[in-house]
Design brief:
The protein is α/β, with parallel strands linked by helices and 297 residues long. The chain contains 13 helices and 5 strands. Strand 2 and strand 3 form a beta hairpin. The relative contact order is 0.09. GO terms for molecular function: DNA binding; transposase activity.
Length: 297
């Protein structure tokens, strides 16, 4: 932030409350606690405006800072700093001291502002990240199903490349619901039916009731997660092709980069114009090795 800072407010933000400390260059100090509710944030805004603060600063703690930032940004400068950088300065750890310490850093213009994405970009990124978590959960459930099948000695991997593909789901649904082998094979695609002898060999046993119930539960969860992933992907692609069509085409022109990978890069990087070179972008993402050298070592 350019110019002289006469008053700065430091915020120590938590899930349900925040501590605000105002410091001035003349040594004055005021400190209040606010609830992290709509009323509390409104009271904070009125307080810092009435105190004529030049800047409000806080750590980028989870997303707790977002509603506070949105409330204040149109009225005064708000700095969201990297918590790791602020903690590089040693100090005692209490909420009140943290708030005062952040105010002191802001007053002396010692906080490097983090990049804050627009509201639409943050929402887009949240879709990408939620989709990633759902994919991880789906993988966990598939691993559970693999373990159940292994314990029951159903080696479906011997006949199917993907046991959670269309034909794999048919087989899993069939054996867990008590269908006979002929009924299951009749429902499979022609290409897979060519392996009917091997499929019969694999399915030539009975699944326990406990395993059947667990497999059915896994299949139901996988199906539900697939539906939610499809909903998210529809919103992701609607946004990204509307707002970043050119970037999508450029990224997907690279070998190995598909739609989801390209959308994820755009969601996590934001505006590429924020970086004057590819090297600076790589450095920001932590892809550039750092050099630590002292006394030729």
């Amino acid at each position: 932030m350019a110019g002289i800072i006469n008053k700065a407010c430091g915020l120590d933000v938590h899930k349900k409350f925040l501590i605000a400390t105002i410091l001035s260059i003349f040594g004055e100090k005021k400190q209040l606690r606010f609830e992290r509710t709509e009323k509390g944030i409104l009271d904070l805004k009125n307080w810092v405006i009435s105190e004529k603060c030049d800047v409000v600063a806080c750590e980028s703690t989870s997303d707790f800072w977002v509603p506070i930032y949105e409330s204040l940004i149109n009225y005064l400068t708000v700095i969201v700093g990297n918590a790791r950088d602020m903690k590089a300065f040693t100090h005692k750890k209490t909420d009140n001291i943290d708030s005062e310490f952040i105010a002191q850093l802001a007053l002396n213009n010692m906080i490097k502002p983090s990049r804050v994405f627009s509201k639409n970009q943050r929402e887009f990124r949240s879709y990408i990240r939620l989709r990633h978590k759902l994919v991880q959960k789906r993988t966990d459930i598939k691993n559970v199903a693999h373990a159940i099948l292994a314990s029951e000695m159903f080696h479906l991997n011997d006949v199917l490349t993907d046991i959670f593909g269309k034909n794999g789901i048919i087989i899993l649904s069939g054996i867990s619901s008590g269908k006979n082998v002929d009924q299951i094979i009749e429902s499979l695609s022609p290409n897979v039916r060519k392996k009917s002898d091997k499929i019969r060999e694999v399915l030539d046993r009975e699944m326990s009731l406990s395993a059947a119930i667990r497999i059915q539960t896994c299949l139901s969860l996988i199906n539900n997660i697939d539906e939610q992933i499809n909903i998210l992907e529809a919103e992701i692609f609607r946004y990204v092709y509307t707002n970043h069509n050119r970037e999508m085409k450029l990224l997907m022109s690279s070998p190995g980069v598909g739609e989801i990978s390209a959308a994820t890069i755009i969601a996590e990087v934001g505006d590429f114009n924020d970086f004057s070179s590819g090297a600076k972008l790589a450095s920001w993402r932590g892809l550039v090795p750092r050099v630590y050298q002292s006394a030729d070592k």
